[in-house]
Amino acid sequence: MYNPxxxxxxxxxRHQMRLAAPVxxxxxxxxxxxxxxxxxxxxxxxxVCQDPVVQNALYTGNVQAVxxxxxxxxxxxxxxxxxxxxxxxxxxxxVRGLWSLTYEQELTTPLHITAGQGFTECLRHLLMRGARxxxxxxxxxxxxxxCEECQPECVKLLLQHGANPNATNEDGQMPLHVCTELDSxxxxxxxxxxxxxxxxxxxxDNDTPLxxxxxHSLPDHMELYLRHGAxxxxxxxxxxxxxxxxxxxPQDCASLERYSRVCHMLVSAGADIHIxxxxxxxxxxxxxKNAIPDVVDLLLKYKALVNEMxxxxxxPMHNILKAVAYKMDHEPERIVQALLNYGSxxxxxxxxxxxxxxxxxxxxxxxxxxxxxxxxxxxxxxxxIIYTPxxxxxxxxxxxxxxxxxxxxxxxPKLSLPTFLKNYLMLAFRDYMH
Length: 434
What we know:
Layout: H1 4-19, E1 23-24, H2 26-36, E2 48-49, H3 52-60, H4 63-69, E3 79-80, E4 87-91, E5 99-103, H5 110-117, H6 120-128, H7 142-148, H8 152-160, H9 185-193, H10 209-215, H11 219-227, H12 242-247, H13 256-268, H14 283-289, H15 293-301, H16 316-323, H17 332-341, H18 352-359, H19 363-370, E6 376-379, E7 385-388, H20 392-403, H21 408-411, H22 419-425
Parallel strand pairs: 1-2, 2-3
Antiparallel strand pairs: 4-5, 6-7
Helix pairs in contact: 5-6, 5-7, 6-8, 7-8, 8-9, 10-11, 13-15, 14-15, 14-16, 15-17, 16-17, 17-19
């Protein structure tokens, strides 16, 4: 008679036995294959191999060795279980409360290895030997692996042998969703040629391939997807369109040009610049938060709402002022200048000391902010505030800007004034204040 504790451990042991796969050496695996090849069916579970000889042949792309190992009668649907890698704590299934450090085991197959490494001849041999093209023991298919590693010839070969271009991996992503590198363009072309869904959404995030291309600033992918009819304004789980995704992605200075090009392509194709995400943030909010001057100029040109507030009560001006201190290389003063010229709310005078604290590393930002007022306060002490008079020229500018507020960018260029005066009216940087 079993007590509850005995039954628990018995069930745990049975569970471990069900999970255990037949681990065989290369020799035993060949013998097993010869003895059971006549009984194998398509639905039979693949066998697990830890033989280093087999793994070395696959990982080095040794065509001759692969052909010798995977000869007639030898199963091509092996599951490779590499040894080593990162270690983590794992609970012992037999003894409650006992933990041990074990290596993480990532299951893969000969197809995954050769496709990911770009060993086309090895991959072709395995496919000719009948390897199951959509086998995914580790949660991802060989086609995903080839796309992630930018191996277009392997992608084409897998598709020609029946790989599903819309199969999902363990993260709910289709192969097009993992084309995230510039060099994966040819992979994306092959996928679309074989019927990949251009508007297929990932299961977890509802991202489309267009979201992915926008987020990773892939202009050539973007052009390809738009030619194939990608939907511009589909929203993902967070409410982001492809344009929102592009604007919300932080980037370094080296990537700014690519991101700007992607946003220009989306807006020119008809992307809605007013769609907001779950936090009611528009593309302009996000472009200001990440300090992308060219994209801010683009959105303002297409009549983005300059004073729209998100759920946190922040307008685009608030977002850029918060980012000035750590986005100096992105020329944040250009964004502040553009927002003011398009009618943005100004900083409340009582908050100027706090703004000065955050923007002190950007003198030009302070210059353009103060030049938007007819007078400003300077704090000499906690108890003494004086109003400093401005020059007559500045007061005239302020009066004209107030009269034309929200229309400056349309009216000023049409005035018969010298260029330097037009620039002055548009708060051009002069590195001093009147």
